[in-house]
């Protein structure tokens, strides 16, 4: 049901992170990440979650370094039904038509800088002698994907995340965008007009503590 949106998000998310090595196995997208604590990410809908879990539990990567992203309408129930995997968190796959996103200016005295390649747009907001907020958007033919929205602790609650999202939306001609929101970030995106497509369960093989 959510397979197309999940695939579009995965393509942009992978492009944003520079993870270009991915392929399909049994309707599961296998993303080669290559980080010490996350070697691989298996991305699937609930229908193919057992196949994703089997791949994670039988691959050759160290314990705790094989991760799963599963789109499911009931992550708590589904987590209890999974094989012996560690639940990390629940996120929410969201979307919007960028023309409909609410706009918020960069508050003074902060300054905005936008840099772009054909497929990646980076936003940086600086103030008081340091980088205060950053964000990235990958732009593909399947749609844009927002990623890596961060605000430095000393600069939070000043509207910088909203200004970052505004700058990204203003720089992209692609009408449709996607993102995966944390529980902390979801209220921000909802306030800007983003809507939830489906919850997403993040899990991993047992091992070291997740980051």
Task: Please provide a written account of the structure.
This protein starts with a helix and ends in a 7-residue tail after the last strand. The radius of gyration is 18 Å and the shape is elongated. It is 24% helix and 42% strand. The protein has 211 residues and is of the alpha+beta class. It folds into two domains: 97 residues, no CATH class; 102 residues, 3-Layer(aba) Sandwich (Aminopeptidase). The protein has an eleven-stranded mixed sheet with strand order 1-2-3-4-11-5-10-9-8-7-6, sandwiched between helices.
Low-confidence segments: none
What is the global morphology?
elongated
Largest beta sheet: strand ordering: 1-2-3-4-11-5-10-9-8-7-6
What is the overall pLDDT average?
94
The CATH architecture category of the largest domain equals: 3-Layer(aba) Sandwich
Structural class: alpha+beta
Range of helix content: 10-25%
* Estimated share of beta-strand residues: 35-45%
CATH class descriptor of the largest domain: Alpha Beta
The CATH topology name of the largest domain reads: Aminopeptidase
H/E topology pattern: HEEEHEHEEEEEHEHE
Amino-to-carboxy terminus distance: 30 Å
* Biggest sheet record: 11 strands, mixed
Cα-atom Rg, whole angstroms? 18 Å
Count of discrete structural domains = 2
Oligomer: single chain
Beta strands, count? 11
């Amino acid at each position: 049901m959510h397979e197309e949106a999940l695939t579009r998000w995965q393509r942009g998310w992978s492009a944003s992170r520079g993870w270009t090595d991915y392929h399909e196995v049994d309707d599961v997208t296998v993303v080669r990440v290559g980080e010490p604590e996350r070697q691989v990410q298996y991305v699937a809908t609930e229908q193919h979650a057992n196949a994703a879990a089997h791949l994670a539990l039988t691959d050759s990567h160290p314990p705790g370094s094989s991760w799963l992203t599963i789109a499911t309408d009931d992550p708590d129930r589904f987590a209890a039904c999974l094989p012996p995997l560690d639940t990390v968190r629940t996120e929410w796959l969201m979307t919007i038509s960028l023309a409909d996103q609410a706009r918020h200016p960069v508050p003074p005295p902060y300054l905005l800088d936008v840099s772009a390649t054909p497929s990646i747009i980076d936003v940086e907001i600086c103030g008081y002698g340091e980088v205060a907020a950053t964000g990235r958007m990958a732009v593909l033919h399947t749609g844009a994907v927002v990623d890596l929205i961060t605000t430095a602790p000393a600069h939070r609650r000043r509207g910088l995340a909203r200004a970052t999202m505004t700058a990204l939306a203003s720089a992209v001609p692609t009408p449709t965008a996607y993102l995966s929101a944390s529980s902390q970030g979801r209220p921000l995106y909802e306030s800007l007009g983003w809507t939830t497509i489906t919850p997403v369960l993040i899990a991993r093989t047992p091992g070291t503590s997740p980051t």
